[in-house]
Amino acid sequence: xxxxxxxxxxxxxxxxxxxxxxxxxxxxxxxxxxxxxxxxxxxxxxxxxxxxxxxxxxxxxxxxxxxxxxxxxxxxxxxxxxxxxxxxxxxxxxxxxxxxxxxxxxxxxxxxxxxxxxxxxxxxxxxxxxxxxxxxxxxxxxxxxxxxxxxxxxxxxxxxxxxxxxxxxxxxxxxxxxxxxxxxxxxxxxxxxxxxxxxxxxxxxxxxxxx
Length: 211
What we know:
Blueprint: H1 5-12, H2 20-23, E1 27-28, E2 36-38, E3 47-50, E4 55-60, E5 66-72, E6 76-78, H3 80-85, E7 92-95, E8 101-103, H4 109-125, H5 128-131, H6 134-145, E9 150-151, H7 155-162, H8 166-178, E10 182-186, E11 189-192, H9 195-202
Antiparallel strand pairs: 1-8, 2-7, 3-6, 3-8, 4-5, 4-7, 9-11, 10-11
């Protein structure tokens, strides 16, 4: 059954953190997988509430590579830093499935909590490349992006995203196949065989795993 903005407002009790006049400004916006929700370095005019599905945030490093920052799950807020500081969008946000509610105004108390959580996650994610092996980073990525347990992302892009070489990624994928975690269907396409074990490997990385 198709949900409405009012259904999500009730589900997440947004009427308890937004004034009535602000609630009335909420509208439901749907994106397709791989759509860009926020483009880096562009001006932002709306707050976004992620109410369904998931998304990933990434940034361009000094050497020009796209690096994965974190995964987002309901109920996440997008754009509060940029609106608060009146600055261009910091990180590109890409839809991994359908979402979300859009809000034209800003509010205070909830944003403070959200900003605090994002700062904590940002500090943790900044050290992921140093503190977690490629196997853990890949497992977390697979659990977040795979639809219907199928992985067919561009391998060059993925290796850049999780901070490893293309060769390291291929070796790790082969290792997962040998361990029975994945099954190679065809060139560049894999199917998840053991979701539980991948969840264990990828837990607490890029913001954690939500089933």
